[in-house]
Design goal:
2 domains, 21 strands, binds pyridoxal-5'-phosphate, TIM Barrel, Lyase, Ornithine Decarboxylase, Chain A, domain 1, eight-stranded parallel β-barrel, alpha/beta, nine-stranded mixed β-sheet
Length: 453
């Protein structure tokens, strides 16, 4: 499977963005996240165009949680998209990248006062309110700052997205949003309409992630239009914006076939238009929040192959070959979290047949197998292994488990390779640590007492 600008070059090596990845591995070390800028840019354009061609007013808002760095925020801003952030850190990153503030939206099921204060003081586009506590906090913050804030109400439409339970959010039993069926959503709208400074602009939902069909989105559109009609009926208030979240899937393996942007846009917009027409409602701006669909296939992780071991399989006759690489669950926790699957290319044998079945193991003190039973070219120690479709929720979810150093990120485009995140150093690991005086050799000074007297 060749994704984006991936191809085999004349030397038989994998190339991405016109860069031979074996040279990237030599220059920047491994593990290494390689990000295909041209693919991200064309995805942003094509996703937006697919909706703009079918619906009068569209906003595409990149879900920053999928992959966010200063450089990424700049690419998204240059492509004219909005961005959604889900924490103080994501908000800070977008602001420091110079992202236009009115195109930033803040999410979260338990926003802190600090997050709301920052959002209001810098004047972002929308806060997506999630619960009654947050509405009260936001009302207090806008009062204090003598400002106003536009909001969307996050609703749970009660649809089952048929994806891994950790990335299902549209069903009724979820921590996110206001339930439509039990009346919480309409009550949230009522309170907002009665409040000064917090301005109700419309509705939001996000049904789940890595969806390979459009069923859940269709159900969500129906549920939200139903709620829009009720808001109109009860309060005479129309919704300016309807945000249906993200969720469109990508290809982790060749047999996965997510709808194309055009197919997705066709289903969503025709369903929405006919539901609005039936209900006699004005067309609101349709907002989307794709994350994975814009960056997932644009990321590739490079590893160096280390130990290779063939062992007998215990539960059946046969053998399994474990190919261990120099990363694992610290740079990609998704296999452990969601049973995620991947495909690989042996970067320095990119034209060789995938005629071996191997399991790619990480090097953590866990059974952190990154990929079970994947087809690959025959490998030797020292080869460079490329794991595909690691652009979303990999760099952002990386950790220092086992005190590993988080990998660098390199942005490639048209033969240029730019470091956008440096590899962590051993110094970085200890930078925030302190040793109390009493633990130092010969140390006498008492620690500050925090015990209640
Ligand atoms: C509110 C919201 N919007 C958008 C997204 C992006 O989802 P995806 O990356 O599947 O498009 C998420 C993901 O968790 C989300 O929670």
């Amino acid at each position: 499977m060749w994704l984006g600008t991936q191809r085999a070059n004349a030397a038989g090596n994998l190339e991405i963005g016109g860069c031979d990845v074996t040279r990237l591995a030599a220059e920047f070390g491994t593990p290494l996240y390689v990000v295909d800028e041209a693919l991200i840019r064309s995805n942003c354009r094509e996703f937006s165009a697919a909706f703009a061609a079918r619906y009068p007013s569209v906003v595409v808002c990149y879900a920053g949680k999928a992959f966010l760095t200063l450089a990424m925020a700049r690419i998204v801003a240059q492509e004219g998209l909005s961005i959604d952030v889900a924490s103080l850190g994501e908000l800070y990153t977008a602001v420091r990248a110079g992202f236009p503030r009115k195109r930033i939206n803040l999410h979260g099921n338990n926003k802190s006062r600090e997050e709301l204060e920052m959002a209001v003081s810098i004047g972002i586009g929308h806060v997506i309110v999630d619960n009654f506590l947050e509405i009260e906090m936001l009302q207090a913050v806008v009062r204090e700052q003598h400002k106003s804030m536009n909001v969307l109400v996050r609703c749970t439409p009660g649809v089952d997205p048929h994806t891994h339970k950790f990335i299902s959010t549209g069903q009724a039993d979820t921590k996110f949003g206001f339930n439509i069926k039990d009346g919480s959503a309409i009550e949230a709208v009522r309170r907002l309409l009665a409040s000064d400074g917090v301005v109700f602009d419309g509705l939001h939902c996000h049904v789940g992630s890595q969806l390979l069909d459009t069923q859940a989105h269709e159900g969500a559109v129906d549920a939200l239009v139903g709620l829009m009609a009720e808001i109109e009926r009860r309060f005479g208030q129309s919704c300016k914006m309807l945000n249906i979240g993200g969720g469109l899937g990508v290809r982790y393996t060749e047999d996965q076939r997510p709808p194309s942007y055009d197919e997705f846009a066709e289903v969503v917009t025709s369903r929405l238009k006919s539901a609005l027409d039936r209900a006699g409602l004005k067309y609101p701006t349709l907002a989307q929040e794709p994350g994975r669909a814009l960056v997932g296939e644009a990321g590739t992780t490079l590893y160096t192959v280390g130990s290779i071991k063939t062992v007998p399989i215990t539960e059946a006759p046969g053998h399994r070959t474990y190919v261990s690489v120099d990363g694992g669950m610290s740079d990609n926790p998704r296999p452990q979290l969601y049973d995620a699957v991947y495909q690989v290319i042996v970067a320095n044998r990119a034209t060789e047949k995938h005629d071996q079945i191997v399991s790619i193991a990480g090097k953590h003190c866990e059974t952190d197998v990154l990929i079970w039973n994947v087809a690959a070219a025959a490998m030797k120690t020292g080869d460079i292994l490329a794991v595909q479709t690691t652009g979303a929720y990999n760099h952002g979810m990386a950790s220092n488990y086992n005190r590993f150093l988080r990998p660098a990120v390199v942005l490639v485009n048209d033969g240029a390779a730019d470091l956008v995140v440096e590899r962590e150093t051993l110094r970085d690991l200890l930078r925030k640590e302190r040793v109390p005086q009493r633990l130092r050799a010969g140390g006498q000074r008492r620690s500050r007492s925090l015990s209640a007297k």
